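Students often ask what a holo structure prediction actually looks like on paper. The answer is less mysterious than it sounds. You provide the chain, you provide the ligand, and the output is a string of discrete structure tokens encoding the 3D arrangement of the protein together with adenosine monophosphate.
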Amino acid sequence: MNEAPPFLEIADAFADAVEPAPFPKAVLRFRNQRWAEAVGLGHLPDEDWARQFSRFDPLLGNLPRPLAMRYHGHQFGVYNPDLGDGRGFLFAQVRDEADKLYDLGTKGSGQTPWSRSGDGRLTLKGGVREVLAATYLEALGVKTSKLFSLVETGEQLQRSDEPSPTRSAVMVRLSETHIRIGTFQRVMALGRGEDLERLVAHVVGHYHPDAEHNDTSKSCVALAESLSRDVGQMIGQWMAAGFVHGVMNTDNFNLTGETFDFGPYRFLPKSDPNFVAAYFDSQGLYRFGRQPGQGLWALQQFAAALSPLAETDDLAQALGHYESVYQQSFRDHTFKLLGIAPTVLEHDVDFLASFYGWMTKSGAPWHQVFFDWFCGGESAARARRSPNAEYYSASDFGSVQGRLSNFEPDRPERLQLEYFQRETPCTLLYDEIEALWAKIADTDDWSAFEAKLQEMEEMRLAYGP
Ligand code: AMP
Ligand code: MG
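The corresponding structure tokens follow.
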């Protein structure tokens, strides 16, 4: 980058310089070549890559030292001022050919002032799960951060939720920004009005230029509206993709509405509003059906953090855009994943009610339904050969199918692609991840992991932009 990394504008008040941990080993397990090329890092040979993304020597002209970010946040509804990057840091900022700015941020790179009693490490299994989730969501067209790199680091970790000792890794995430709702909450809680203003100006300037305004309060309100739209869009896409994030804490919402921080996530096996991803979410606060409401709740905390700078009523009004953007996104993404073209609102909404009502009642395997009926009525013959066929011959499916046939397929030529000749779609269910991890854990066999990523690439091309 020819310029100074933009985050340096605010780093003095929002981050601490830290050292990466020295790792005994660096074995490359995943590199995201497509995105590496997009940000000008595709040329690195594997050996250099593994060294670069485990030792984190500064990139030329980039951040001189890694920066652990300071933030607070609500975890399961409870405010926690003891957060911050406890096992990660911002390593560098890069731009793509269109000059769009991205962060390279780590997870598992060592302890920081914010580690509390934690070891600052990431398990290899956790890293594998992150690679799979981000790649799968991207293939489904969901707005998400990207997994950039995963390097195994040769340490033995103790974890209560994995058979231990367990293998270690360090990952790098490519995301538009690592600034999160919790970053705002911290300066608000500490009463640092000047820093809050600087943060708003930084975020508006680099990520929400539409919210630019001479008047700070107007800028805050416009920012709240802009983020509401981004988050509404993201969660609408999650709900159509059957994605359960699992930990919708306010430190896990970044300032451009990208999905990130994949811990105990799951994809739905079948429609179930009460499906909970995290074993430690005993109340089901972040269960599937609560995700849209929790998105709004996180935005309300964002508005509260901005309240020293703008009128509460104006901020509340700005969040009023969330609901309609969410609805629109849920509708658009359902249609995208079914390969059919939306029509008029009334028609589409009637279809969504019928379709998802049947999904929940029948308990049909979620991703198989979308796969079988890709391009709607065009696929009736394919659907009859599906492992799901019995669901489609049941009488209560008739009215869903009737409605489906009324929509025009969107680019039906895609049905000729290799991907749609399969019997079953590429899925990422919990048991599949456990099975591919078992091969890695037992015999260091990475073939099932590689094969799954290859399937996801075919799927990405099939769904297209
Ligand atoms: P997360 O659940 O990944 O969003 O993390 C929540 C908080 O716990 C963040 O402040 C993390 O940096 C911190 N944290 C999680 N795991 C560790 C660890 N192994 N060592 C240090 N801090 C951690
Ligand atoms: Mg987090």
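The two ends are 28 Å apart (CA to CA).
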